[in-house]
Write a structure and sequence with these properties.
The complex is a heterodimer of chains A (156) and B (441). Chain A has 156 residues and is mainly α. Chain A is built from 7 helices and no strands. Classes of the chains: A mainly alpha (156), B mainly beta (441).
Chain lengths: 156, 441
């Protein structure tokens, strides 16, 4: 039963891929796979160099100014496409936080970057009891299905 | 409902094949390797920490971590790229995690990026965010947009998950897709579907999603994401926000977010998200607002507020507020900042205040940083331990030995209700090599 479903899905994917062959693809230039110039350190403001609408996400560059607002909502933009993100960020960048069974907290890995919004600063083992009670949805994004066995020491 | 766990799914059996294919595909282009644009990064972290737990027990740990990532683009002069990311750990003293060694391959895949229309395809292990999906999978992904702006994306494979929930296993297969309409600079609307199955019944996941981005006026945009959990037969999550970006210096956002525990956590593989840790009949509704204002070049004020309401009186409702000031200098290489935050809640045990200050100093090849954080809890957070305050100081010093090689070290001191004294040291060796021009972060 499951094999049949898998085969049907695979077949559907192939058919759709053929349907959306090269001739049916938009002629808009794709976002380059790599940002053509070296990027400065710190929070990026695309508006310093770019105007109008990005070729990758087809949204204004102002949308991607790396402000506190954008950082909080970056997932919403990434869920509409990762191509613009990956022009400046290597895939490993996302997985600094969104990893499978990560053991090192992001703020430990980036101890020399206190300017970054790395979660879990301080002895978060204590604070997470409160944050987790009040807004567990924010924990779930990274810890729901991608876990560290350290969680199990208390959550049995 | 559940299936016999002895029956392996085709997806699981495909895994070794997918990984093998991904590993050897770059060899096809080895003849044209000089044309490839290669970046390689190695980060080695040597940690040492000693913990004195309440009761006087001292433990010493010395885990050694190695993180590797490699990206090769323009393979064979074609829009093909190869990506790898993984890490490993070996303990040099007491066991610091699950066993004396650990590690994982985070991503390992080939990608084709069509020169037009952002059409792309991926094969291997990769982190995917597409509509309702935010998963790492061993499988394939394809996406294309037609000339009229209608597009479709499809993906399928085996989810890369790790369960620590007794009696629950990882999913055997995951597939889904998204159809969308995009008009450049004006709107993007999407509808998505995700199905994960092959696990015992309660872990089956079937989600329908919708996403929206609309620019209603210059500098004003609306965003929305909603997902419906068909297995739980209720909304899993919703988030709607208005964002105002009047120029390069001001960014304001306000919105509403809600989720139900049953809808969002139903497929959780971590006991922290299931009964009895949480009451699965609860739901959260949040109103939030954020302001980011660079009022003078280099000086940024950040203000954020959140009202969190629960259906259940335990944990009850709460308000969280935060004010921060950042100053960037030395051509943005350095930043100093202060942050004050508070949580005011219905229940005393959920209230705390937090203060943080940090600064960096990067003269020439040297980099020095200091980061201090303090938390004050209204009630003792650990029953039986009278301490209500916690603080941590992290001091870091680094030196750029070569253009591609940096050595740095951190010293951390923590005092908290859990740790009487916690000293930690870290040595970090970063090697970043890249060919070609341009930059990735």
């Amino acid at each position: 039963m499951m094999r049949r479903a898998f085969a049907a899905n695979l077949l559907g994917a192939v058919l759709l891929a053929l349907l959306f062959g090269c001739s049916a693809v938009s002629k808009t230039p794709s976002v380059p796979p790599k940002h053509p110039e070296e990027l400065p350190t710190g929070r990026v403001n695309c508006l310093e160099c770019h105007e109008n609408v990005s070729t990758g996400a087809l949204k204004p560059y102002g949308t991607f100014r790396h402000s506190r607002v954008f950082i909080n909502a970056h997932g919403a933009y990434a869920r509409q496409g990762q191509s613009l993100c990956s022009s400046c960020h290597a895939p490993a960048f996302c997985q600094t936080c969104h990893a499978g069974k990560e053991e090192l907290k992001p703020n430990v890995k980036m101890g020399d970057r206190p300017d970054r919004m790395a979660p879990h600063r301080g002895d978060y083992l204590v604070a997470h009891r409160i944050d987790g009670r009040l807004d567990p949805g924010s924990c779930f994004r990274c810890h729901g299905n991608k876990n560290d066995v350290k969680c199990k020491q208390c959550h049995k | 409902m559940g299936r016999p766990t002895t029956v392996g799914s085709p997806g699981k059996r495909l895994l070794p094949a997918i990984v093998s294919i991904s590993l050897f595909l770059p060899l096809l282009f080895s003849g044209t390797a000089p044309a490839a644009d290669v970046t390689f990064s190695s980060k080695t972290y040597g940690l040492f920490y000693q913990r004195e737990l309440a009761g006087g027990v001292k433990d010493r740990y010395a885990p050694l971590y190695e993180y590797l990532s490699a990206d090769a683009a323009n393979l064979g002069g074609k829009p093909l790229s190869f990506h790898f990311y993984g890490w490993g750990r070996a303990d040099l003293a007491e066991e610091s995690g699950s066993g004396r060694t650990s590690g994982e391959i985070g991503s390992l895949y080939m990608e084709y990026l069509h020169p037009q229309g952002n059409a792309q395809a991926k094969l291997g292990r990769f982190f995917l965010t597409e509509g309702v999906a935010m998963d790492t999978i061993d499988g394939a992904f394809a996406k294309a947009t037609s000339p009229v702006g209608l597009g479709v994306s499809l993906y399928g494979g085996v989810p890369v998950e790790y369960t620590i929930l007794n009696g629950a296993e990882e999913g055997d297969s995951l597939y889904g897709g998204r159809v969308f309409f995009v008009k450049a600079g004006f709107t993007e609307l999407g509808a998505s579907y995700l199905k994960e199955n092959g696990s015992p019944g309660r872990l089956d996941r079937e989600l329908y999603g919708g996403d929206l981005w609309v620019r209603v006026a210059s500098g004003v945009e609306l965003t929305g994401q909603a997902s419906y959990n068909r297995t739980a037969r209720e909304m899993a999550s919703e988030r709607y926000a208005v964002r105002i970006v009047p120029g390069a210096a001001v960014d304001i956002s306000a919105g509403y977010e809600a989720y139900t525990y049953e809808g969002l956590f139903r497929s959780a593989l971590n006991p922290a998200f299931v009964f009895p840790t949480v009451d699965n009949n609860d739901q959260v509704r949040t109103i939030f607002g954020i302001v980011d204002w660079e009022f003078i070049p280099g000086w940024t004020l950040e203000v954020a507020g959140k009202n969190i309401r629960h259906d259940k009186s335990d944990p009850g409702d709460a308000n969280r507020g935060e004010v921060g000031l950042r100053y960037s200098y030395n051509a943005k290489k350095d930043v100093a900042g202060i942050v004050a935050a508070f949580v005011a809640a219905d229940r005393d045990e959920n209230e705390y205040r937090e203060y943080r200050a940090f600064a960096t100093h990067s003269p020439d090849k040297l980099r020095l940083t200091l980061d201090a954080i303090a938390q004050q809890y209204k009630r003792e957070p650990i029953a039986g331990i009278g301490k209500k305050n916690a603080y941590q100081v992290v001091a870091s010093a680094g030196y750029q030995l070569l253009a591609a090689l940096q050595l740095s070290g951190d010293l951390t001191y923590t005092q908290s209700p859990i740790f009487e004294k916690d000293y930690a040291g870290l040595v970090r060796l970063s090697y970043d090599l890249g060919t070609g021009t341009g930059g990735k972060k």
